[in-house]
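DM from R.C. (forwarded with permission)

"hey, sorry to bug you on a friday — could you get me a structure for this? deadline for the figure draft is monday and I only need the backbone to look sensible"
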Amino acid sequence: MFKKYDLGKDDGNVLIISVVIVALLIATGMGYMQWSSDERWDSAYEEATVQAYFLAQMGVIEQGLQYLRTREPSDLPQGTVLLPSKVVPDVGQYHSTKVSRVVSLGSGSVFQRSDTYDVYSTGKTSFVDHQLGNRKYGQKKYVERTATMRARLRSFANYMYLTNYEVTQFNEIIWFWTPDTLYGRTHSNDFIGLKYSPTFYGPISTSQDRFRYNAVGEVHFEYPPQFNVPPVYFPTTATSIRANARPTISSHNGAFMTWIEFLGGDGIEVYQYRLGTPPRDSSIMHLPVPNWQAIFVDGQVEVEGVFQGTLTLGSAGDMWLIDNIRYEGADAQTGWFGDMTVTEGNMPHMLGLVSEKNIIIRNNYVNGRENGYRQFPGNHQRHSIIINAGMVALGESFTFEHQNDEWDAYQGPDPYDERGYIYLKGAVTQWRRGYVHRSNHVGTGYGKSYNYDFRFDRRPPPFYLEAMDENGHGLFDIISWGEQAPHK
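My reply, with the result:
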């Protein structure tokens, strides 16, 4: 009896243990099923979020970027434009696609022109909710992601050196050679000629399939050169400057030369004198320090002085640089400010010089006439020229007067008519690349000391010319891609 009692007692324990084990197995199985369900839900959710984000990027590219790149600069929106949605079969859709112009608040609480645009697009997709315990089990769950892009309309000021042709009217190639060092973006629609060992610290591109080489040495490219790049269109008139000029100055059908002198904090003095007569201090108007302004001269103009403010000066005729054009606060010997990379210090002043013809350095004594650099090397009032500006010569070239060609009435000293250096802190755009130094008389003209004003890469001078393709559509640089906070 005693043994039977023990066996019965053991049978009861086994039963209890079996029940516990079964319960644990059921709980474990349920937990595994829940975990598996959660994993499946997470996997489906992650797949949907990726699809939604790529749908959003599709909207940014197909609608937003395409919209920007097929518009003339004058047709770009001042505010926000809503663009079409699109359904992608078996995937989802993008919607709420829009392009918004970024408003920039300039100094003095004056709203300045902004060439930056934000593009937004929201991608939407779905997956079936198979999560256990969810009241919406078996139903579709929607996921949205919003992609963003910031793009900036490129202007001529985004190039340190921009040309349409690299040869003269007589088909002479003007080479980049060993003394040439360029820090900003360089582009030509033509074949770029490289001789010996020039240095390019900024991007360099051409619309042709190769460079021209002559006795090439070790050319330094900080970035890989780009070939077959779409050409940059050169307009024949400075339309935006003409339209926004306050004032426009008449040359009386070309009979008068306009002479503009920058007076620093005292503003701008405007003179005129009849062509063919000696210059006279015959003032026709005085202007205050410009604040995001344009002036247009309907004829030729001479320019000099110490500049304050923000201005673009345009001219229908040749623009003559008759002395230094230097920002207030820039170095008095070289015109430099900031450093040689991307820091420009606290320089607040900005100037554009745009001619529908040529921009020409006048051959006078302050600019080094008659071998001024070799005759008076320590006297900067007798040689060289400072240019703090972004320059555009739409009609022909940035060049210098009296190059001692055989046919030229002016013949300077021989040997040497070296006039110093061009100390440029700014940028140069020209329809046809012009000479700034020749081998005539053993040496005639200027050496180059060029440094890009990196402020131009963020904002051009007022009403500066936009870079466009051959169809007149704006060229854009992508500044950033991103994503707004996810929609749960």
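R.C.: lifesaver. The first strand starts at residue 80 and ends at 82.
me: no worries. Confidence is low (pLDDT under 50) at residues 105-112.
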